[in-house]
Write a structure and sequence with these properties.
The chain has 145 residues and is an all-alpha fold. It has helices spanning 2-31, 37-43, 48-58, 65-69, 71-87, 93-100, 102-115, 125-140. Helix 1 (2-31) runs antiparallel to helix 5 (71-87), helix 5 (71-87) packs parallel to helix 8 (125-140) and helix 7 (102-115) runs antiparallel to helix 8. It is globular, with a radius of gyration of 18 Å.
Length: 145
């Protein structure tokens, strides 16, 4: 019975992670300026006309800047945390938190290096929050497993 329950939890976590990854990717692809490296790659795909149609449809929507520029990072961070939780579900909290910290830590370090002009890019405090808040919630909210 416990094995089936753990399997259901893992599948639910992975499905939620995939949904968050997809929504973040959708926002990133269709609402950001078309100067990103991702758009260069999309231009080479055979399904480019589909992406163009989706892009035209999305131009009718005006999303807040936070949603367009910061929310995808938060969704991707949360997606990663859910995958970590699914993989290490039955492991001790110390193991889970160790693995969970990896991607948010990379995000925080990269933002700090951007602030110091060591890494190219634009420092954004909201990006910092987008990496830290999901991790802090993950670290603080108790789980029943």
């Amino acid at each position: 019975m416990q094995l089936n329950n753990n399997l259901r939890i893992r599948i639910s976590l992975l499905a939620a992670a995939l949904l968050l990854l997809t929504v973040g990717g959708w926002i990133y692809c269709f609402f950001r300026p078309h100067v990103l490296l991702l758009h260069v790659l999309i231009d080479k795909l055979p399904c480019k006309p589909l992406f163009d149609k989706m892009g035209e449809w999305c131009q009718n929507w005006q999303l807040p800047e936070f949603v367009v520029y910061n929310l995808p990072g938060a969704l991707w961070t949360l997606s990663y945390l859910l995958v970590v939780e699914a993989i290490f579900l039955s492991k001790a909290f110390a193991v889970r938190i160790h693995w969970a910290a990896a991607i948010p830590l990379i995000g925080v370090v990269s933002e700090c290096l951007q602030a110091l002009k060591i890494l190219p890019g634009h420092f954004d405090a909201w990006d910092l929050c987008s990496y830290l808040v999901p991790f802090l919630v993950y670290a603080v909210v108790p789980r029943r497993t």
